[in-house]
Amino acid sequence: MNTKEIFAIGIMSGTSLDGIDLVYVKFLENNFHYFEIVHAETVAYSKKWTSTLQKAMHFSSEDLALLNTQYGLFLGELACDFIKRNQLQKIDFIASHGHTILHQPEEGVTLQIGDGQVIANVTKQQVVCDFRTQDVLLGGQGAPLVPIGDELLFSNYDFCLNLGGFSNISYLEKEKRIAFDVCPVNIVLNAYANQLGVEFDDAGTFSSRGSLNTVLLEKLNSLNYYKEKPPKSLGLEWVKEHVFPLIDRLETDVLSVLRTFVEHIAVQISQVIQKNNSVLITGGGVFNSFLIKRIEAISGTEILLPKKELIEYKEALIFALLGFLKLCDRVNCLSSVTGAKKDHSSGVVFLPEKQLSKI
């Protein structure tokens, strides 16, 4: 008997605002260990969208509601363009991470905009989204959500490390999946690279030329978050409260900020993966070759990079998997990772509404 093929689109927007990742993935029914990325691409944000999303955490509830609808329309139109461009014939569902505006799980708050009903109506496809809210209501961090994918798709690695807006890591400990946000990465590096007139520090060219500020490095490494035990997660609010003020007080040279923060990232990651050569490393930060060299040097770990497709699109792939698991009523959120009261199947399903006939 042939196993039924399931085709899905995964949509991911990270906190570093480097673009929206879209993947078209093939899964197999009743086989949650198989995947094939058929098509994948990244769509850059316009300056207007970048500016809006950067400011959105300060919006009123009414403005956030409007933005939620507008962003859903934007994602729906992007998905339609992606479908048309790649001539996709079979789509079982779309899974969207949305874009995180607020994430304060200790306050019971998490918000990822991108109205699922709007996306469903625009694309005329079944949509799964809002994967974090239920976990927070169950007392969890609502993050990280990717580790279930590490468990099912990449269990041949001891550590799965992602370098995006934040670095997060996942690994097995005493037969339980442990995962947490390690430290900020591109959300800080890109902010200071922007001051140099570039979107990001390509290959770490600027950071490699800066001087190491040992006082700043010590202060960064001493932040209370790093002493906490998982489950734990980070958000832009934490960076704005604890990281940016510390940097701006102790270092004015942007090259030295970049150099010092690269070292900080490498130190924090090395404390987790020290002397282990079975590390799957993905995310946009992988292309910062200076950062990778510093992680290798401090951790004593040889890092072998996977295919570029996996580096760039692993998170979008796994959000498609989360949608697949949700629609199969399977666990897609692990309490050992988030601290929720129980494992559960998270996400909200939206079906396209029938268009009203014109009078």
Low-confidence stretches: none
Task: Tell me which CATH architecture of the largest domain applies here.
Answer: 2-Layer Sandwich
So what's the oligomer here? single chain
Give the strand line-up of the largest sheet: 3-2-1-4-7-12
Please bin the fraction of helical residues: 25-40%
Q: What structural class do you assign from the helix and strand content?
A: alpha/beta
Rg over alpha carbons: 20 Å
The CATH class of the largest domain turns out to be Alpha Beta
How many E-type strands?
A: 12
Number of domains: 2
Kindly report how far apart the N and C termini lie: 49 Å
Strand content: 15-25%
Q: From N to C, what is the helix and strand string?
A: EEEHHEEEHEHHEEEHHHHEHHHE
Task: Name the CATH superfamily assignment of the largest domain.
Answer: ATPase, nucleotide binding domain
* CATH topology description of the largest domain: Nucleotidyltransferase, domain 5
- Shape label: globular
Biggest sheet character: 6 strands, mixed
Number of helices: 12
- Chain-averaged pLDDT: 95
